[in-house]
Amino acid sequence: MTAPDGDDCWGLYIPPKRTIALAGGMPPALRWHTLIHEWAHAWIIDAGLPNLLHGADDAELTRNVEVVCDTLATAMIRAMSKHLKLDPKEK
Questions:
Q1: Other residues' Cβ atoms within 10 Å of the Cβ of residue 34
Q2: What is the pTM of this model?
Q3: Tens digits of per-residue pLDDT, 42-79?
Q4: Euclidean distance between CA atoms 81 and 65, whole angstroms
Q5: Residue 12: in which H helix or E strand, if any?
Q6: How far, rounded to the nearest angstrom, does the alpha carbon of residue 77 sit from its chain's CA centroid?
Q7: Residue 25 and residue 41: Cα distance in Å, rounded?
Q8: Three-class SS string for the chain?
């Protein structure tokens, strides 16, 4: 899957449509991680948190948002992996 900026990615949150798109062919743990990461983007936007995560420029804002989304997704996968029988190391 290709993001609007041309980067390859596993998933996208599309704010105007309030839609999450996921790439195919991912193992279950990565698919869950990506879904939660994209949900986090939706939550951050809905809550107005980009105003708190801003930086000196757009690149810093993007990096700050990505760190928060990855942190939330990783924490949720760790909490869910036993219950969903996910192997976070599966490729």
A1: 21
A2: 0.83
A3: 998 888 877 777 777 888 878 888 899 999 999 998 88
A4: 24
A5: strand 11-14
A6: 12
A7: 22
A8: CECCCCCECCEEEEHHHCEEEECCCCCHHHHHHHHHHHHHHHHHHHHCCHHHHCCCCHHHHHHHHHHHHHHHHHHHHHHHHHHHCCCCCCC
Give the separation between CA 83 and CA 78, rounded to whole angstroms. 10
Please provide residue 15's backbone torsions phi and psi, each rounded to the nearest 5 degrees. Answer: -55, -45
Pick from 48, 44, 51: which is nearest to 68 by CA? Answer: 44
The structure tokens listed for 6 are: 């041309």
The full set of domain ranges for the chain reads: 24-84
Whether pLDDT at 34 is above 90: yes
In the block, residue with structure tokens 């790439």: 23
